[in-house]
UniProtKB/TrEMBL annotation:
Domain Rhodanese, chain residue ranges per copy: 25-110
Gene3D superfamilies linked to this entry: Rhodanese-like domain (3.40.250.10)
Organism of provenance: Algoriphagus taiwanensis
SUPFAM superfamilies from the UniProt entry: Rhodanese/Cell cycle control phosphatase (SSF52821)
Alphabetical list of Pfam families matching this protein: Rhodanese (PF00581)
Name under which the protein is recorded: Rhodanese domain-containing protein
Matches recorded under CDD domains: RHOD
Database matches in InterPro entries: GlpE_sulfurtransferase, Rhodanese-like_dom, Rhodanese-like_dom_sf
Length: 111
C-alpha cells in the first residue's frame, strides 16, 4: 500500500512552455534562469535574470528578491530549476513555476 504521508508535496508547479510563455507577459512576473553564466550567455529566454544555482551566492541572491512576485524558473532540462524552486519555497516564496523540460523544450524565441 502506498503511504501518501511519507512524500513531501512539491511547493511549486511544473508547467509546460505554453503557459510559461503566457505568464511571462503578466505584470509582477520575474523570469529566473538558474544555469551557469556560460550557459546563459549561449541563449536565454527574453527578460530572464541569471542566478546560477551552482554558485555559492545563490541563497544570498534569492534572499533579496521580493516574495510577492510570480517566479518563472528554468534551466537546461528542468532539473536544477526544480531544485531552485524547492529552495525558494523553503524560503517562503509562494508563486513558483518551473519550466517543464527546461529551455531544451522551449519552442519560442531565445535571445
Amino acid at each position: 500500500m502506498f503511504d501518501f504521508f511519507k512524500t513531501t508535496p512539491k511547493n511549486y508547479e511544473d508547467i509546460p512552455s505554453g503557459p510559461f510563455h503566457d505568464l511571462m507577459l503578466q505584470p509582477d512576473t520575474v523570469i529566473l534562469d538558474v544555469r551557469t553564466p556560460g550557459e546563459f550567455a549561449g541563449g536565454k529566454i527574453r527578460g530572464a535574470r541569471n542566478l546560477d544555482i551552482m554558485s555559492r551566492d545563490f541563497v544570498n541572491q534569492i534572499k533579496n528578491l521580493p516574495k510577492d512576485k510570480t517566479y518563472l524558473v528554468y534551466c537546461r532540462s528542468g532539473n536544477r530549476s526544480g531544485q531552485a524552486c524547492g529552495i525558494m519555497a523553503d524560503m517562503g516564496f509562494k508563486n513558483l513555476k518551473n519550466l517543464a523540460g527546461g529551455i531544451m523544450r522551449w519552442p519560442f524565441e531565445t535571445v
